[in-house]
Design a protein that fits this description.
The protein is built from twelve helices and 15 strands. It is an alpha+beta fold. The protein has three domains: 177 residues, Nucleotidyltransferase, domain 5 (2-Layer Sandwich), CATH 3.30.420; 103 residues, ATPase, nucleotide binding domain (Nucleotidyltransferase, domain 5); 67 residues, Actin, Chain A, domain 4 (Alpha-Beta Complex).
Length: 373
């Protein structure tokens, strides 16, 4: 899922190939016969879109009337209710699952892909996005316990990346981390030193992200306002795949399966993608400036800027982030595994298996009563 988990063996989930094998999509398929996760869920969603639940981590710790929760439910074509104190998603076919149980299923599946089994309750560190608040963190801790994991701590995404960077290269430095997620845009500034990592400041806009860029392209291609509903899912998935390597002067074409016996021809140009990025430019500029101000940094005091998140590998994002920061960002597929590497290293440090810097990020730690009980 979008939050990375690291087991307490520092050799696990530390290289990009291992991360790719262990990564589990942040969605589930909930047919009447039982929950399906991983690549099988993505494949099944094409045939049974009415059973798919997208954006799981955005449902945790929320109420049915929350705008973000409602957007997730609308995209998946379901409805939301409360079951006791837990948010419950009900698919269009009437099958219900709580957000915590859905996330627990994904976490259990991810852990089994890394360590082979959850029977021994592997010691785990889970990364969380900048915008996670106490209610989201509490729900995630509960989901981890349901998954049979011994949760040592939660760690901020940016702090986990910084920890991985500290093991890659020695020396003190200040780094900026720009995260372009599906439903949010965040910026964090972190200092890296041999004995400590400090999250200086972070800021985010949790109402705009890569999904909005995709929605704008879908809207243009369908010739009307995007409904953000399940009927558009084949187009959304095609657009996300088609734009991954799209440069400004490029054009890419694809035949999209939109139904059992129906196809559509789709063409996207680099110029269209650049225009669609306008939905991010205003909010991103504000978020970057806020984080920089809160960190009490001048732009030239940031040694390097890293780009991560689902859209960060797009060629056009390099210019986009340069306009924000004044620096050409470090980016690439291998950076997507940094948070998972940092989580695994933090688990190994907390378990006493390796020595490493202390991480100060304001998130829940093993010192929190009851967290690692």
């Amino acid at each position: 899922m979008a939050s990375s988990a690291g087991a307490n063996d520092p050799g696990q989930v530390l290289d990009f190939d291992s991360w790719q094998e262990a990564a589990v999509p942040s969605m589930v398929l909930v047919p009447p016969e039982g929950v399906v996760v991983g690549e099988a869920a993505l494949t099944g969603a094409v045939q049974r879109p009415s059973c798919a639940v997208y954006g799981l981590k955005r449902l945790l710790g929320r109420l049915p009337h929350d705008a973000i929760a409602k957007a997730v439910a609308h995209r998946s074509g379901g409805s939301l209710t409360m079951s006791g104190a837990q948010l419950t998603f009900r698919t269009a076919e009437g099958v219900a699952i709580t957000a915590e149980n859905a996330v627990a299923t994904v976490l259990r599946h991810a852990a089994e892909r890394v360590v082979g089994s959850t029977e021994e309750s592997p010691a785990t560190v889970i990364t969380v996005p900048e915008w996670y608040g106490p209610s989201q963190e509490s729900a995630l801790i509960s989901a981890a316990r349901r998954a049979g994991l011994t949760l040592l701590r939660l760690i901020d995404d940016a702090a986990a990346m910084a920890l991985a960077l500290a093991f890659q290269e020695s020396g003190e430095r200040t780094v900026g981390i720009v995260n372009i997620g599906a439903g949010s845009f965040s910026v964090a500034f972190t200092t890296i030193a041999p004995k400590s990592i400090f999250l200086l400041a972070s800021a985010s806009d949790r109402h705009v992200g890569g999904d909005d860029v995709t929605a704008r392209l879908v809207q243009e291609k369908l010739g009307g306002p995007a409904s953000h509903g399940p009927a558009e899912e084949p187009f959304r998935q095609a657009v996300e795949e088609m734009t991954q390597q799209l440069a400004l002067g490029d054009e890419v074409r694809r035949t999209v399966q939109v139904g059992p016996d129906q196809v559509a021809e789709l063409t996207i140009t680099g110029r269209e993608l650049d225009d669609a990025l306008d939905v991010l430019r205003g909010p991103a500029t504000e978020v970057y400036a806020d984080a920089l101000d809160d960190a009490a940094l001048e732009p030239e005091e940031v040694d390097v800027v890293y780009a991560t998140g689902g859209m960060s590998t797009l060629p056009l994002l390099s210019d986009f982030i340069f306009d924000l920061s004044g620096q050409v960002p470090e980016s690439g597929p291998e950076l997507q595994s940094l948070a998972a590497r940092g989580a695994a290293l933090q688990a190994a440090i907390l378990s006493g298996e390796v020595d490493g810097p202390l991480v100060f990020d304001g998130k829940s730690t093993g010192a929190t009563p009851g967290l690692a009980d």
